Amino acid sequence: MNPGDLIMFVWPESLSRIDDPMDWERARIGLIIQTTMSRPGDVKYGDELLVLHEGERWSVPSTWCRKVKESK
Question: Which regions of the chain are under pLDDT 50?
Fold first, then answer.
């Protein structure tokens, strides 16, 4: 994922539920602004992305994100 990519991301209901399976039915849509932290080899969280969602900036682990595919 790169800056400018449109993504969906999931945000846990509470910090105590971070390890629960992701509920993609409640995904939010955002635009990647930049990668703020690179975590090579981190399979749990991945890189940290700065995402613009509804006019607010969110810091989101890349493993909580999926790229939105273009429709044809």
Answer: none
